[in-house]
Each structure stands twice: as structure tokens, then as C-alpha cells.
Amino acid sequence: MNPLKLIFIVLLITAAVMSEGCNRGDKKAEEKKAPSQVAAKVNATEITVSQINNVLTRTPNVTPEVANQAKREILNKLVDQELAKEQAIALKLDRSPNVVQAIEAAKSEILARAYVEQIAATQPRPTAEDVKKYYVEHPELFSQRHVFEIEEIIVAPKEGNAAAVAAQVSKARSMQEIADWLKSTGVKFAANRAVRAAEQIPLDALPKLQTMKVGEIRVTPTPAGGQQIVRMAASKPAPVDEAAASPAIQQFLANKRAGDAIANEMKLVKEKAKIEYVGEFAGDATAADAKAKAEAEATARAKAVADAKAKADAEAQVRSDELSRARAAAEAKAKLEAEAKAPPTKAPAPVVPNVDKGIRGL
Description:
The chain has twelve helices and six strands. The protein has about 350 residues and is α+β, with helices and mostly antiparallel strands. Among the domains are: about 5-120, no CATH class; about 145-240, Chitinase A, domain 3 (Roll), CATH 3.10.50.40. The strands form two sheets. A four-stranded antiparallel sheet has the order 4-3-6-5. Helix 6 crosses helix 10 (about 240-270) and helix 7 packs parallel to helix 11 (about 285-340). The chain is elongated. It starts with a helix and ends with a helix.
């Protein structure tokens, strides 16, 4: 059989198992099912209204005006799905190792998702006080929100390049000047210009961005080891009042609370469970985690040292440039003062035109 057809059938069977597992009871319950709950019969199998509604709730952008049409389309797809499932079983594809594995994977995913959704559902909703507190503590996102127009250059990682980039940025007058310099050095980079609202900026970077003046250029290291050069092209205030921000804040806090609860619960479950790694994954997982953590900390320390050195080198370069400019200015001033003190030179005798020659030419 064509592998693509097999994959298609596997997906259909998986979807059918998910649908049946979530919406059907045992055989006895099926026999007692109210007739009004049956939407269609495919051979010996019934497709229920509950199944249709279950799919409908997970279908985006369905308005009341098109709901009936959407239900009909869903029912037709469920009928096709059931027919494909029956054909797959007739061909004994349900015994195929790949199909069995896919069904078990789908079952595991459904059960795991149901567990974490239950944890999330038990968390209390954020109160009005919680929402107000978050609004007040984050003026950069709301009452002092800005929309930024920024120009940026992302410089690819290159060993020993940070100091040179920082020095160039400190004396550059435009992003084009920096781009031209990067081209001349052969360093790879990507330039971009974008308009971004405060909520589209990482929270740790937003305070620094808000302090930038229009026309100012700054450089910061990237997690990958390169540099991000940003120029503030424009900054426009766009505050959001508490009433307008409240729904988004409440949803954010609810998601965060649920995420934290799930993470804590999974940590406790993992601590109580007996987990043994075998084969190529054998070994002390704790030791491996500790080693990975130590390596990450060592990398972070090395990066911090390199960044500090790059900053010091850049500052030294800036001081050197300022000293050179000051020295040049002092020399120019001294030259002007010396010229002012020097005795005036004798003016040359005026040139008398040759009148005679001119007259003869008449």
C-alpha cells in the first residue's frame, strides 16, 4: 500500500479513537441512547450530535450564522472518517505496528492533557485586586505604554568581535555607517526595521528601550553570542487604561497561575515516581543534570567575563577617541594663538598695471 495512504488512514483512525473515547460510553449505554442524539448511522455505527458539537467547539471562527452549515460539514467528515476506519479495520491495519503505536500515542496524549487540564481548572481565577496590582506594577505595558519604531542589526557570533562592534557603535552616526563597516569586515549580519508595541518587546529588554532617546543607538549581546544593535527611530505614547487592559491581564495571570501549578505538580509527581533510565540513556540522571547545570553556569560566567572585557575595551576605545579629539582641538587652538601673536608680515607692493601697453593697444 502507498505509505502516504497508510499515514492518512492512521491519522483518521487516531482521530476516530479520540472522538469515540471522549464521547461514547459502553455498549449498554449506546443501546439506551436517545434517538435525538443520533445524527447519522454508518452501517452499524452511530454518529452522535455530541460528537459534532465536540468538533464544533474546537473549530475557530464559527459564527451563529454559519453554525448549521458548519455542523453539516462536520457530520459529512465524520461519516467519511467512520467509513475509512471500517475499511482500515477490514484490511487489518489496526494491527499494524505503526498504527498501534500511533493509537497508543494518541491515547497517552489525551490522558496526559486531561490531567494537566484538570489541574489548571482547579486554580482560582485572578481577582480584581490581582489585576489592578499587575496593572500598577507594569506602567511600561499600560499607563506609560509606547509604540516604538526601531531599526536593528543582528550581528552573527564571531569570536573577539564584541569589542570592535561596541567601539564602532559608540562613534557611528547612522545604522548605514555600521552596516557598511560590518560589510567591510566580512561579518554576517541581518538588518531590519519594524514598528513594535511595548507588549511585543521582551519584558527584560523593555525598560532599557523606554529610556532610549530618538536617534540613540545601543548594542546588547544576544543569547547566541552575537550582538543586537538597535536605533530608536521613533517613539509614540500609546497608553492603555485599566478597564481596557483588565481582560488581557486576567487571562495572562490565569495562564501563568495554571502553568506554575502544573509545573509544581509534575515536579512532585516526578519526585515520587521511580524512574530508571536504561541503555544509552542509563546513568545517574541527577549527576547528568548537575553536570549540565555546572556547564551552563561556567558558560554564563565566561560570557559575563567576555562581556565585561568587551565593555571595558569599548570604553577604553571611546576614551582614546575623545583624547585624540581633545589633542587635535588643543593643537588647533595653539596654532591659532601662535598666529595671532606673530608680528604682521609686510604686505607686498601693489602691482601697477602697464598702462602704456594698454594705451598702445588702442
